[in-house]
Design a protein that fits this description.
This protein is α/β, with parallel strands linked by helices. The chain is built from 9 helices and 9 strands. Helix 4 packs parallel to helix 5. Bound molecules: zinc ion. The site of zinc ion (ZN) has 8 residues, from loops.
Length: 289
């Protein structure tokens, strides 16, 4: 027998080959803005704001509600689902898109309506979920936001809507466009009753959502760097055949034009909302007195 022949059995591989790599995936993430590699846990602790350049990452609707509200909240209309009225198909059937989004996110459509407390103050808060078909507004989002407005109206609680949306959901055609009028009409009733409504605009807030409830707040507050607009910059450039200015449609540009009232860092958002709600509610009480 040759001296170099292996006589002992090789060490048995108990882990299957597909699991034989170091599990670091998902622990780190790259900042979209400054390209710094950030430890995901640090990012979460910093409310999904890059510790180096203050870039505001997207947040899910659930994370948003956890950040803004004091602990537990009651969810409303969670079971509402789209009926796919047009039986719409593009690159794949709308019904299949809905099914996939529901499975992936564990929610039925692109908004959560919550009733809870913000810094001890009872509020109704709707938070949009961009991960659900681009946070688009179809019949369900429109109806849920409208019911959120009506709940605020019935219970005399202030309303906060956190928008994050690509606009109306075109797979529902005209029905999605009708939501603009419906939500806006409900908000007019809320305004008549002098109940405060604060709209929080996050990256991105565009299309039919901008053209309705996102811009109808008593105060419209944007997060830093948020893209806010109706049509996207590319479409506008092609239409007017002109180069758009630097930073066009970003919160910092819009505030100089008076299109948004404030830009608030996410880490200060909760206390700022509490302060503003107190201010608005006192003012409303004086008007009604
Ligand atoms: Zn960064």
């Amino acid at each position: 027998m040759a001296w170099f022949k292996r006589e002992k059995k090789p060490i048995e591989q108990s882990t299957p080959p597909e699991e034989r790599r170091v599990r670091t995936e998902g622990l780190w993430t790259k900042c979209e803005s400054c390209r710094t590699i950030v430890f995901r846990k640090d990012l979460e602790e910093n409310l999904h704001v890059c510790p180096k350049c203050q870039f505001h990452f997207k947040m899910s609707a659930k994370q948003r509600l956890e950040m803004l509200l004091d602990g537990r909240y009651t969810e409303h209309d969670a079971g509402m689902t789209s009926t796919d009225p047009l039986k719409f198909t593009d690159t794949k059937p709308y019904a299949a898109r809905l099914k996939e989004a529901r499975r992936k996110l564990g929610m039925n459509d692109a908004v959560i309506t919550a009733e809870g407390q913000l810094n001890g103050r009872p509020v109704v808060c709707c938070a949009m979920e961009f991960g659900f078909i681009g946070g688009s507004m179809g019949a369900v989002v429109g109806e849920k936001v409208t019911r959120g407005v009506e709940l605020a109206l019935e219970t005399a609680q202030p309303l906060i809507v956190v928008s994050c949306s690509g606009g109306a959901r075109m797979m529902e055609g005209t029905i999605s466009l009708m939501q603009l009028a419906k939500v806006s009409a409900a908000l007019a009733r809320l305004d008549d009753a002098k109940i405060p409504y604060i709209s929080v605009l996050t990256d991105p807030t565009t299309g039919g959502v901008t053209a309705s409830f996102a811009m109808l707040g008593d105060l419209n507050i944007a997060e830093p760097g948020a893209l806010i607009g109706f049509a996207g910059p590319r479409v506008i450039e092609q239409t007017i055949r002109q180069k758009l200015p630097e930073g066009f449609q970003r919160a910092e540009f819009l505030i100089t034009k008076g299109a948004v009232d404030m830009i608030v860092d996410r880490r200060k958002m909760r206390e700022e909302l509490a302060r503003l709600l107190a201010l608005l509610q006192n003012q409303a009480a004086e008007v009604l007195a």
